[in-house]
Fold this protein.
Amino acid sequence: MRAGRPRASSRDVLAEAACELFLEQGFEATSIADIARRAGVSRSSFFNYATSKAGLLWAPFDERSAVLADLLDAPGHPLDAVLRSAVLTFAEGLRPDALALAIANADAMGMAADLERESAVRMARIASTIATGARRGGRDGLSADIAGAAYAGAVMSALRHWALAGPGTRALRDVLADALDALPGAVS
Amino acid sequence: MRAGRPRASSRDVLAEAACELFLEQGFEATSIADIARRAGVSRSSFFNYATSKAGLLWAPFDERSAVLADLLDAPGHPLDAVLRSAVLTFAEGLRPDALALAIANADAMGMAADLERESAVRMARIASTIATGARRGGRDGLSADIAGAAYAGAVMSALRHWALAGPGTRALRDVLADALDALPGAVS
DNA sequence: GCTATTGTTGGACGCGATCCAAAAAAGATC
DNA sequence: GATCTTTTTTGGATCGCGTCCAACAATAGC
């Protein structure tokens, strides 16, 4: 066992409490103190589990994004097939339950504006990650940027469709695979 | 002449003052009060010219984005050629002087993180705008999202390259035209 | 028990952003 | 030129986010 005081809660508990409150009062009207109180921890402790109110639901996504970056940082020339498999691996370990709930109930939660901001940041981050990978694969800067953006668009589109259809319906990986299949020919 | 008290400043003046301070002290260390003071207006008045500290430099870009949305909202089926010309029109009226300065001096200004966030939001917004246009042009949702993201990636990549090369070097429109030429074949 | 380690807690702080009522500066009307 | 209307400015108040820190609590290993 690891030494030290055990954690009093978990990020999932925090995220669940947050979703409840977002549904009851809306995103804006819910303060960090509210979330912490419902989860049974102090406001200070909230920041041991998440860096911000908006980032709380995106934590699983961000962790997988770091994995994606590592995959594309490995030696070897990332061809299109490598990019595709890396993105699929990224999606396989991804289980963004609370985030899916938020996407599906964005209007009821008053989260449309926040989701736009936060998903935009993630999309750009993935685009940049893939672009640097594509550059290492020999592409010039411009088409690498475009390819990265296209891949990132496919990822976010798949995430949204998967969440709207209900996470139980299909595996996120499969939805994303379909999206990646649509990549060639999307810009003709 | 229009009735009422005349404006005491302008957004450009505010943006210029902001850039100076960002270079001197860094973005984080510069408060809105600082910017307003240097521009000779009160802190309250700052919000008559910009909605936020981060948005100040992006105001010209946002105005042209609204124009782009209007162009793609016009009747008629937006084919690829229409998308392309709309995006070029968007860029022609765009004169983001302060923004270009910030992009070129992002490190010296300590604006890397902020630029990532703000440009991500703009990129996603353009992607969404173009995606809805592409949908109206007959594409299915998925490839419309991908095409929108690819176009948006080209726009932001062109903006960055144009700013880094120095705004006097080439017209933004021409840089963007090259980027749009790279669209087909970027995802092969 | 003692110590090292890890987490929790409350409080204080600065800043971004919103809101509002009061005041100031212009044109319009007579 | 006095008054009215319109537009903008201004200061102050308020709220919440996010950071920082010192004190305290709980666990493992010795």
